[in-house]
Design goal:
The protein is an alpha+beta fold. It is 30% helix and 17% strand.
């Protein structure tokens, strides 16, 4: 399979690593983008966008990067905070009255955005729900008791993150996560990506596939990813219905170039994120909020409202192998977005070629 695109001087090693991943069959379809000093210095496309190998991966190929979606979902909530519709530290129940029960009366938006709300997975009663039953899934979260007292522990809210944000926005701002992101956030940050892919862009979406049919059974995070069943079912994920729906914790569809550009301008004082949020909320978005043992990852991590952070980087990865980060240490941004669901060793090889380490070292 050919690798198409370009690399600037000094980035040949990155091309070589990416080409080797494709040549060795470790990658069957991916986009890679690196930005430095306001310009794209690496744009590579490798493999195919479809299982039938009829559509070569191109720079405009959209793909679902799973939890790389979360910083973008968080922006939808923060945009509503900017507008004064809600605040980070008021109880959610002041807006979403049905949510304030069973020990969740004091849960705040900050708890949700930093994975401290005590609902890292949907409750067992959601097992029979369809993944696209937004109403049912939101109701299951509102009715359930948290797994721990909100604010006292943490664990990535793997599937629930977007539904919690969506429920808060519906109650407090009279809008949805999808509407707030697509109509307000997306134009402001200039992202080539959507929650809910419009019909005119569906032809650009890549099909997901498993690297190994046993991959699902081998996932250490499997207990956090069901219910509802089907969010890792590629047949379901590749359907038009799923691509045009909003499952805010995981189903942004975007290009590698768009995500890398976003990360490259993330910390800029004159960048689009600061322009969207204002100085104070921009600082909140990027600042370390909590460090502790993350029960889902099984290690100590530092969370901002949307990102993992350590001294060297601001980052987010997604199950299946996609990852994006801003290197505080080296001053570049990278996005590696893949359709081949496997581990993160491919992104780690790309990171190493850039002098980065994707291992997250807690700040404290």
């Amino acid at each position: 399979m050919n690798v198409e695109g370009f690399v600037a001087d000094g980035f040949d090693t990155v091309r070589q690593v990416f080409q080797r991943l494709v040549d060795d069959g470790l990658e069957t379809g991916a986009g890679l983008s690196v930005w430095r000093d306001g310009r794209e210095v690496v744009r590579l496309s490798g493999g195919w966008a479809d299982a039938e190998q009829r559509r070569p991966w191109q720079s405009g190929t959209l793909v679902q990067p799973y939890s790389v979606s979360k910083p973008f979902a968080a922006l939808a909530a923060l945009a509503a905070v900017r507008d004064g519709a809600l605040s980070l530290d008021e109880p959610i129940a002041r807006y979403w009255s049905g949510y304030g029960r069973q020990g969740k009366e004091g849960t705040t938006l900050r708890h949700v955005l930093t994975h401290q709300a005590g609902q890292p997975r949907f409750p067992a009663v959601a097992a029979g729900l369809d993944p696209l039953d937004d109403t049912g899934l939101r109701a299951s979260l509102a009715e359930a008791a948290p797994e721990y007292v909100p604010g006292t522990s943490l664990g990535e809210h793997a599937l629930t993150y977007g539904h919690l944000i969506d429920g808060i926005l519906r109650a407090a701002a009279g809008t949805t996560l999808g509407e707030m992101f697509n109509d307000v956030v997306r134009p402001a940050i200039g992202l080539d990506g959507w929650f809910g892919v419009p019909a005119h862009a569906l032809h650009r979406v890549a099909d997901l596939e498993y690297a190994d049919q046993n991959w699902l059974r081998q996932l250490p995070s499997a207990p956090w990813l069901e219910p509802p069943a089907g969010v890792l079912d590629v047949e379901r994920m590749n359907s038009r219905a799923w691509r045009q729906a909003v499952f805010g914790g995981v189903n942004l569809h975007a290009t590698a170039t768009a995500v890398a550009e976003f990360f490259s301008r993330l910390t800029s004082a004159d960048g689009p994120v600061r322009g969207l949020l204002g100085a104070d909320l921009h600082t909140e978005y990027l600042s370390s909020q909590v460090t502790g043992h993350d029960a889902v990852f099984g290690t100590t991590l530092t969370w901002t409202p949307g990102f993992l952070r350590d001294r060297a980087k601001i980052a987010k990865g997604g199950i299946g192998g996609s990852a994006a980060w801003w290197s505080i240490e080296h001053g570049h941004a990278c996005a590696y977005l893949t359709r081949r669901l496997d581990d993160h060793s491919r992104a780690a090889r790309i990171a190493a070629a850039l002098g980065d380490d994707l291992t997250v070292v807690p700040e404290h």
